[in-house]
Structures are given as C-alpha cells and as structure tokens.
Amino acid sequence: MPDDLVFMMGKYEARIPADRQYSPKHVWFQRQDNVHRVGFTAYSVRLLQDVYFLDWRIDAGATLKTGQEVGEIESSKALSTLYAPCSGQLVRFNEQLLNDPSAINTDCYESGWLYEMETTADLLTPEAYIQVLEDGWEGTQRLLKGQIN
Fold first, then answer.
1. How many Cβ atoms sit within 10 Å of the Cβ of residue 74?
2. Pick from 14, 3, 2: which is nearest to 47 by CA?
3. How far is CA 105 from CA 21, 31, 86, 127, 149, in A?
C-alpha cells in the first residue's frame, strides 16, 4: 500500500491517505465493493474543530445532485450546512454518528465516515488533492485569521 501524504497546516499535519480519492470540497471517497464510502478529510476536520452535532436532511436512497443540501453539522467553530460533493445515489448513512459524532474528530478516515453512495464522478488522486490544498492555503489562512476583505 502506498504511503500516506501529509499537508502541513501551519504546525499541524493533515494526513491524506493514498488509498482513496478526493473531492475539492474536502471529502474523501473509498471504494467499498460497488459503492464509495465518504467522509471528511483531516484538513476539513481540523478547520471544523470538535464536531458535536450532525443531522441529515435527506433520506437514504435519495438521488443527489452536486451542491445539493444534505445536512447540517455543528462544531466548536460554527453551524454549517453540508452539501453533496458530487452527483450520485445515497445508499446509507453511518447511523452511529447521529448519536455520537465524535468519531469524525478522532477517526475521520475509518469509523468517522459519513455515508455511502454510488457515483461515477471524476475524483481527485491524493496528489491532485494536495495540490488543491496548496493552491488554496494562503486564502484559508487569511480566512482563519479574519483578514479577508
């Protein structure tokens, strides 16, 4: 198995596993038989910080369109709307997260997965995702520091 990649967020490491694909919307996709398991990347979890509430606004079996509102997540940073990163068919949710979303914080690449979906979307390689992070990091830092005009 190839080595994981690492993106440095200042002094913090965001691990990017090499065994999955990515969306520029900071979620990972890992093929599981004929579906993709989807979850937040370490980069997005670091920006969210301490997730403590998750709610879905759609049902399993729904057909998703890119950018469609699918749920809501609350963290110590903010209450945020969740959007579908790509088009496809939602198969099932990680029901354990509804009662206790802390796995998103502690194990985002394994037990903290969000849902499974069928999709034929063009996804990014780990290297291409790292490039997306590098290209956007300066703007992200300004946003984090409240310096965006």
1. 16
2. 14
3. 20, 22, 23, 23, 30
Tens-of-pLDDT digits for all 149 residues of the chain?
568 999 999 889 999 999 999 999 999 999 998 999 999 999 999 988 899 999 999 999 999 999 999 999 999 888 999 999 999 999 999 999 988 999 999 999 999 999 999 999 999 999 999 999 999 888 777 665 554 43
With residue 89 as reference, give the H or E element that holds it. Answer: strand 88-93
Q: Are 75 and 48 in contact (CB under 8 A)?
A: yes
The residue with tokens 């609350």 is: 74
CATH class, domain 5-137, is mainly beta
| Helix H or strand E encompassing 82 | strand 79-83
What's at 104, amino acid-wise? I
Domain ranges within the chain, ordered by starting residue = 5-137
